[in-house]
Amino acid sequence: MIIHLDLPQNGYDIILERGALGHAGELLDLDRRVLIVTDDGVPEQYARAVAAQCKACKVVTVPTGEGSKTFPVFEMLCRTLLEGGFTRTDCVVAVGGGVVGDLAGFAAAAFMRGIDFYNIPTTVLSQVDSSIGGKVAINLDHVKNIIGAFHQPKRVLIDPEVLKTLPARQISNGLAEAVKMSLTSDAELFALFESGDVMQKLDTVIERSLRIKKSVVEQDEKETGLRRILNYGHTLGHGVEAFAHEHGLYHGECVALGMIPMCASDVRARLLKVLDSLHLPTAIPGDIEPMLAAVAHDKKCAGSDVSVIYVPAIGHFEIKKLPLSEWQNDIRSAMQG
After folding, report:
1. What integer pLDDT is reported at residue 300 of this predicted model?
2. Whether residue 143 is found in the same domain as residue 227
3. Position with higher pLDDT, 289 vs 216
4. Among 33, 151, 208, 238, which one carries the catalytic annotation?
5. 308 shares a domain with 182
6. Axis-axis angle for helices 202-219, 187-195 (nearest 10)
7. Residue after which a domain boundary falls, among 165, 188, 220
8. 297 catalytic, yes or no?
9. Which of these is catalytic: 177, 207, 221, 253?
10. CATH code for position 328
11. pLDDT tens column, 6-47
12. Domain boundary among 126, 142, 165
């Protein structure tokens, strides 16, 4: 299946096909120098399968986790490109989850002011969400994705077969992002989650999620308006994630927590049941105050105000601008009251 993301410039195809990894050389232009970036949590055979189809390639494996989205690792990738003699005619390929895609994509965006980038996501989270849209970034201190760019991939290759090696928790972690999109934009997709047979319809979940994000990005590539709905759950979620290393929470789990207070009470009741069915957390661990304070540094804050997404009914959303202090009090009430 080919889903085309149509943009005024730099539109591209998203290939959704089981077994696609095995013939990536037919689907991507790998007849040049290729830097493959993966992490040590991704099965080695995935990067090897791509490398075997390249004309000339270098594989760099970074440590798994958000700790790799840092300036030192970013600099290492740029030095690898420089020392490897890469030019504007060459490319970077990410083989991994959202961290690898963000990091490799940002290196591709910065090197020589931008070289080609292909994304081959290997987690549910990256397949349903982060692999498309062109947002690439690294973190600075506890502030997530604060240093980055918009750099659209040349093509995205999504092979659901690679998800077979994921542990159940990582699958649930990724499905949190699909739940997010269903809440704001697709009541039928949310009903699929409520039906309880998600794993039997995983390809459908991936496709519907991609089509939601495709539509949003086509209308608002640089996040000036509508694209903010993709941040649903992320305002508080990023605050939780800034301190999640103390509790071992994944990104999607933090987003799940961030969605809970930002919806109507009847929506929340249904959401909590879905989160429970997916074994996602429903209570914030630890002290919420530093998490709320971290939001003040979020990109969605402007002065003393914060832009947030609220879901009044399944499949509908509102974009609200609130004083940060008011939003913080609302969160305290919803999560602790």
Report:
1. 60
2. no
3. 216
4. 238
5. yes
6. 160
7. 165
8. no
9. 177
10. 1.20.1090.10
11. 999 999 999 999 999 999 999 999 999 999 999 999 999 999
12. 165
Q: Is residue 231 annotated as part of the catalytic site, yes or no? A: yes
Contact assessment for residue 199 and residue 277, using Cβ atoms and an 8 Å cutoff: no
Task: Based on the fold, state whether residues 172 and 254 are members of the same structural domain.
Answer: yes
Task: Check if 300 is active-site.
Answer: no
Please state the domain count of the chain: 2
Residues 130 and 179 in one domain: no
Asked if 149 and 179 sit in the same domain, the reply is no
How many whole angstroms separate alpha carbon 301 and alpha carbon 321? 9
> Which one is catalytic: 33, 155, 208, 213?
213
Residues 302 and 231 in one domain: yes
From 155, 180, 251, 253, the catalytic residue: 251
320 classed as catalytic = no
The two tokens of residue 235 are 């305002």
238 noted as active-site residue: yes
Determine whether 213 is an active site residue: yes
pLDDT of residue 298 exceeding 70, the answer is no
Annotated active-site residue in 33, 66, 69, 135 = 135
User: Active site includes 270?
Assistant: no
> What is the residue range of 55's domain?
2-165
Catalytic residue among 119, 227, 241, 253: 227
Inform me whether the pLDDT recorded for 305 exceeds 90.
no
Over residues 86-128, the pLDDT tens digits come to 999 999 999 999 999 999 999 999 999 999 999 999 999 999 9
**Distant-in-sequence contacts of 297-301, Cβ < 8 A, 24+ apart:** 297/142, 297/143, 297/146, 298/143, 298/235, 298/238, 298/239, 299/145, 299/146, 300/228, 300/231, 300/234, 300/235
Rounded Cα gap, residues 254 and 280, in angstroms: 9
Q: What pTM, to 2 d.p., does this model score?
A: 0.87
Catalytic residue among 26, 113, 164, 246: 113
Reply yes or no on whether 251 is catalytic: yes
Secondary structure (3-state) at 298 = coil
